[in-house]
Design brief:
The complex is a heterodimer of chains A (about 160) and B (about 290).
Chain A (H helix, E strand, L loop, with lengths): L2 E8 L2 E8 L4 H8 L18 E4 L2 E4 L12 E3 L12 H8 L9 H14 L5 H8 L10 H17 L4
Parallel strand pairs in A: 1-5
Antiparallel strand pairs in A: 1-2, 3-4, 3-5
Helix pairs in contact in A: 2-5
Chain B lengths: L6 E3 L4 H10 L3 E4 L5 H6 L7 E4 L9 E4 L2 E5 L4 H5 L2 H6 L1 H6 L6 H4 L4 H7 L5 H8 L3 E6 L2 E6 H4 E3 L2 E2 L6 E7 L6 E8 L9 E9 L5 E9 L6 E2 L1 H7 L6 H11 L12 H24 L2
Parallel strand pairs in B: 1-3, 2-3
Antiparallel strand pairs in B: 4-5, 5-10, 6-7, 6-10, 8-9, 11-12, 12-13, 13-14
Helix pairs in contact in B: 10-11, 11-12
The chains are: A alpha+beta (about 160), B alpha+beta (about 290).
């Protein structure tokens, strides 16, 4: 079995692990680190459920090996709430019913986090383009778009960093 | 599914990567992984050795060299999308890249990976075919340059030998009075395009077409240049008559047939998209 020793930061915490090199990043997060918030859907980069941020940019967790994340800064859904309090993006999803079954939500929120850090006044077109990389089979997307735009407004008004 | 076991290598230089490739049986180079890793996950590919090029710094980046733009093979699609040099000097490529996959896949996918995977409907091979790109290849016998037209040999088949590696892509931007357009048709944004058209036309002061490129993606097994359409355009007066005749040539190319899309449908799309793209390129060339 080919393994590699890696050290990476996930949600601000440093982890050192020996990983089998064929294990992808999202399986590593879920099985080795117990961070089961990131979901696994299609395993070929289409559904977006496994999306996490790697060095600040949205990345398919199923299309990258954990061994490749050596030295990386990874952010997952578990890092969004602070001290048990949902962040404004999560609150907007709660308030505007931006999810139903919730399977796609962790990936959606990570891509929207990337978008909001870059653009606090996104157009609906921009939001929909970002969401094109995520499949949601419950909501019909309308409430996801509404929640993303509401989150941008709340961040603009509060001045809180994304 | 999960990939079959392999030995992972992470070389730090091109020489190291080539030596690994030459000394291991059944080895594959890993670029951005947005096409190869799905194939590994589904066990459509089962290499014994995976040679990851991610940490080879010299393979990344866009630079201007004389009248050419040179892309390191590991330049990420994201870097092309946000490059001011590309926006200014290669607007055809700048128009195509945002239609390529999704934000989340462009963040890791590379130009070299896309060219080596050579999916018939992929955007970057189509743009490289339209721009007559030169590809730098390094192999056991040294460095050579391959024209994009020779690189694309058949359905997902390149001119690379087992021990070869694509290192850079060179493109010479058009200058002067010209217009560009890239239009694709996909069922959903980010899906593989059913067909696409990439157009470049240059005009003289009287509105006569002096140079023309008509390239189609997704129609044939590799991106195509429609030379009959280009021949009709050059020397013609830019306008609906010339564009209609050139677009009609696009319906005559031999097209892929599959259970979802019959050949006649791809041919029809090729004609429609080429017609629209010619009109748009002309509007851009003339500033209205």
């Amino acid at each position: 079995m080919d393994t590699k020793r890696i050290s990476l930061t996930v949600n601000g915490k440093i982890y050192e692990r020996e990983v089998e090199t064929r294990v992808n990043l999202v399986d590593f997060l879920r099985h080795d680190l117990g961070l089961t918030g990131s979901h696994v859907g299609c395993e070929h980069g289409v559904c977006g459920a496994c999306t996490v941020l790697v060095d600040g940019v949205s990345t398919r967790g199923c299309l990258m090996f954990a061994a490749q994340a050596d030295g990386a800064q990874v952010e997952t859904i578990e890092g969004l709430a602070k001290d048990g309090k949902l962040n404004p993006l999560q609150e907007s999803f709660w308030d505007l019913h931006g999810l139903q079954c919730g399977y796609c939500t962790p990936g959606v929120l990570m891509s929207l986090t990337e978008m909001l850090r870059d653009d606090l006044s996104p157009t609906e077109t921009h939001v929909r383009e970002v969401l094109s990389g995520h499949l949601c089979r419950c909501t019909g997307y309308q409430n996801i778009v509404a929640a993303a735009l509401e989150a941008a407004k709340r961040y603009r008004e509060s001045g809180q960093p994304v | 599914m999960k990939p079959a076991p392999f030995t992972y290598h992470s070389p730090r230089s091109v020489d190291e990567a080539l030596s690994l490739l030459g000394s291991h049986e059944n080895a594959r180079l890993l670029a951005g992984g947005q096409s190869l890793v799905p194939m590994l996950n589904f066990r459509l590919a089962s290499p014994d050795h995976l040679i990851d090029l991610t940490r080879i710094e010299s393979l990344r980046g866009i630079r201007e060299e004389g009248d050419e733009i040179v892309f390191g093979a590991m330049t990420r699609q994201r870097d092309i999308e946000f490059s001011s040099v590309i926006a200014e000097r290669l607007p055809l490529m700048a128009e195509a890249v945002p239609q390529l996959g999704h934000r989340q896949t462009r963040n890791r996918g590379t130009i070299g990976g896309s060219l080596c995977h050579l999916d018939p409907s992929a955007e970057l091979p189509t743009i490289c075919m339209a721009m007559d790109a030169s590809l730098e290849v390094l192999g056991p016998s040294g460095k050579r340059t391959v024209a994009m037209a020779d690189f694309a040999q058949g359905m997902m088949t390149t001119a690379l030998a087992a021990e070869d590696m694509l290192t850079a892509v060179r493109i010479r931007p058009w200058t002067g009075r010209y217009g560009h357009a890239f239009i694709e048709f996909a069922r959903r944004h980010g899906d593989f395009a059913v067909a696409s058209a990439a157009i470049l036309i240059a005009l003289d002061g009287a509105g006569t077409i002096t140079r023309a490129v008509v390239a189609l993606g997704g129609v044939g097994p590799v991106p195509l240049r429609v030379s009959a359409a280009e021949a009709l355009l050059v020397g013609a007066s830019a306008g609906p008559d010339a564009f209609g005749a050139a677009a009609a040539e696009c319906a005559k190319v031999e097209a892929l047939e599959d259970p979802t899309y019959p050949a006649w449908y791809r041919q029809h799309l090729a004609q429609t998209l080429a017609g629209r793209a010619l009109k748009l390129a002309h509007e851009r060339a003339t500033g209205h």
